[in-house]
Amino acid sequence: MVGPEVRERILEAVEVSGYHRNALVKALKSNRTHVIGIIVPELSVSFFSEVVRSAEREARANGLQCFLCQSHSSSDALAKDIAALREYRVDGLLIAPASDKDNQPLYKSLTDQKFPFVLLDTGVEGIKAASVINHHVAIGRLATEHLLSLGHKRIACFRGYPGLPSEQRYEGYCQALKKAGIEIDAELIVGDNYDFETGLEAVRELLQRKARFTALVASSDYVALGAIQELARHGIRVPDDVSVVGCANLDVSKMVTPPLTSVDQSPKLIGEKAVRLLIEQIDQQFPSATTIKVNPKLVVRGTTAPAKRSRA
User: Fold this and answer.
1) Reported confidence tier of residue 312, pLDDT bands at 50, 70, 90
2) Topology of the domain comprising 136-265
3) Higher-scoring residue by pLDDT: 209, 286
């Protein structure tokens, strides 16, 4: 539209002034910013860092940029994050709920307004929305069945914080024990989070209770590693004395000695599928209630072994 000389002067002026296009003004014309928002509890929880990494890679491959927020498992913070991202006119949202029971009016508002969003890892009670989630009952069942197959009967369960997905994984744990004809022992149920310190504290609590156990199912790989460290501090060997199963199958599970047996939650697959599901909604301008369940896989390594009769 302009000659070469004028074009060159314009480009020089742009560089000198540091001018950048106003994406929000452009969005008013096109009704698209080509930016999506991602809200997760914490990136320090490596499961979600893997989900985010995968989602961002898939988004970039489709010409999208990402804004990232951490809710720190606070329902209030999550609500503020959603409001802020919508103010910046993101095209859609990937949301890891802070709770399966909180923020229902907010999610309902998003669905009523036909705003594109996908729930990550777990659903929300009473909300029909697009989601990519783990089969959490199967996670608890797989881990417990593996230990039962090795002859363990006194299996401790290190639960995460109250609500989903912890309740579903605990349900899978209970299903496996009941199928094996073993009663649930409340003395063996401990833990209230997914971090390393939870593993330390849960083992201490079991030992203070003088609970008998030959194996444990952990709510995350970090919980499992904390448990292994605390067991070692008390002279209890893994897997010779106690077998341990983690959850997530993070890279760190292969780097420790012995390598950690873990249930693979496929965070990379969750991130990819969630972005694709979100793009479908954005392109079609129509909300979705599609639920994709990712089936877990058990990865057996060195922290599980057959129960010794004297211990079982």
Assistant:
1) very low
2) Rossmann fold (3.40.50)
3) 209
